[in-house]
Amino acid sequence: MRSSIVVGLQWGDEGKGKIIDAIAGSFDYVVRWNGGNNAGHTVVVDGKKFPLSLVPSGVLQRKKLLIAQGVVINPAVLLAEIAMLEAAGYRVDLMIDPRCHIVMPYHRAMDTASEIWKGKDATGSLRLGIGYCYEDRNNRAGIRLEFLLRPTLLKDKLEKIFPLKRAIIEKGYGVKTDFTIETMLAEYVAYGKKLKKYIGDVSALVTHKLDTHSFLFEQAHGTMLDPVFGTYPFTVAPPTIASAVFPSVGIAAAKLPVIGVTKAYTTRVGNGPFPTELLDAVGDTMRKNGNEFGTVSKRPRRCGWLDLPALRYAVRINGVTHLAITKLDVLSGLNLLKVCTGYRYHGKILREFPAQISQLPECKPVYETFAGWSKDIGHIKKRNNLPKEARRYLSYGERELGVPIRYISNGAERKALIRS
Predict the structure, then answer these.
(1) Which residue among the candidates 13, 97, 136, 226 is catalytic per the annotation?
(2) CA angle, 130 then 136 then 139, to 5°
(3) Residue of 146, 155, 107, 149 whose CA lies nearest to 128
(4) Catalytic site residue 41?
């Protein structure tokens, strides 16, 4: 199979991990290319849940795994995930690019202190330090994975960086730090020794094998969390759109198929605009039936109707060639379904998400109504065997977005997948 990119088309949590796990068997490598351990993928195989936040989701298909330089790593989290997987009988065949940046204790401390300081304007960060790690990377003050292998170099970097970080945390935010250069040096040098065997040049490997091997490029987060094209400032630090895979891995741009993953409805975690949010019993039902709680955060997700303007936008900027629809089964039992077809803004109908995010509070959803279905669809293997109401719902979205549906997920398990 030709190499492909998998991206989420909403605010994350679209079920990318399920789709990647289900199709990874057809690829040689699975490559994680952005984000940190604030992005979780939950994969269910034979009734057992595997929550993954850094290890690529192809691990359960026993694929070769790559973590590209666009990912930032908390070594303790990564090592714990590897141990969990190995204890479950999975060998983790992993290569990590030495250019990856490392999440440090002061990143987490700054993240927490900043969110508290912002009060009601907090972005909804998980306080794991991911954004501050990316900030240091961009400001040339970061700690790269390669530094963990060189204690003298790491010590020199920390002596230059940490005094300012401590001053910001303690004097700026008024929070005491409980770590020192000495404690960080000892901890992170130990991590370096454990991670050394995984380090390799991911950029070179992918470049040299892209024409002869197949790669599945795994995105964290979702399109609407992109720091430029998402709902800024309620976004994440790294780019999340499909074209960012090339600089994030370190390969030349190429024309690759893009599989866009979207739920059959819409969710998001944290603060920020959400035009189709349901603050009623229907939203509660979606949350309950869909088990809509964050893989990493455990926070309840906000739920709402499918938003076609946002999806049209995401399809366009990602160059989506195929769709994967997840959690269609969650809608079973709802008598009435709605799909947002456009936004009413000052008397005009907008068919696509506005470039000016400040306009969103004045945008009111325009809905198309569909009959629901009561039948349990979890056992169905073919699209044509779905209830006619479900087929109409899918065909409408497919037609409106102008992109064919390739995969329909109708359950959490790997095998609960209709290929169309």
Answers:
(1) 13
(2) 145
(3) 107
(4) yes
pLDDT band at residue 333 under the 50/70/90 scheme:
very high
Cα distances (Å, whole numbers) of residue 295 to 14, 263, 277, 333: 12, 16, 20, 25
Q: How many residues does the chain have?
A: 420
Cis peptide before 233 (omega within 30 of 0): yes
Q: Does 92 score more than 70 pLDDT? A: yes
Q: pLDDT tens digits, residue range 52-65?
A: 999 999 999 999 99
74 and 103 in contact (C-beta within 8 Å)?
yes
Which of 96, 14, 93 has the alpha carbon at shortest distance from 60? 93
Nearest one of 300, 70, 83, 330 to 203, comparing CA atoms: 70
Pairing of strands 364-371, 336-345: antiparallel
Judge whether 60 and 21 are in contact, CB under 8 Å. yes
Given 21, 41, 136, 307, which residue is catalytic?
Answer: 41
| Structural domains present in the chain | 4-88+203-419 (3.90.170.10), 101-194 (1.10.300.10)
Of 70, 48, 58, give the one whose Cα is nearest residue 17.
Answer: 58
DSSP 329: G
Name the 3-class secondary structure at 252: coil
Catalytic annotation present for 13: yes
Residues paired with residue 267 on neighbouring β-strands, in sequence order: 303
Per-residue pLDDT tens over the stretch 154-170: 999 999 999 999 999 99
Mean pLDDT of 10-25: 94
Q: Which residue bears the tokens 């309620």?
A: 234
pLDDT at 258: 98
Residue 340 confidence (pLDDT) above 90:
yes
Average pLDDT for the chain: 94
End-to-end, the C-alpha distance of the chain in Å comes to 16
Amino acid at 254: A
Q: How far is CA 44 from the centre of its chain?
A: 17
Distance CA 174, CA 179 (A): 15
Could you tell me what percent of the chain has a pLDDT over 90?
87
Query: What's the pLDDT at 200?
Result: 98
The average pLDDT across 252-275 equals 94
pLDDT surpassing 70 at residue 153? yes
Q: Is the pTM of this model over 0.90?
A: yes
Pairing of strands 306-307, 322-326: unpaired
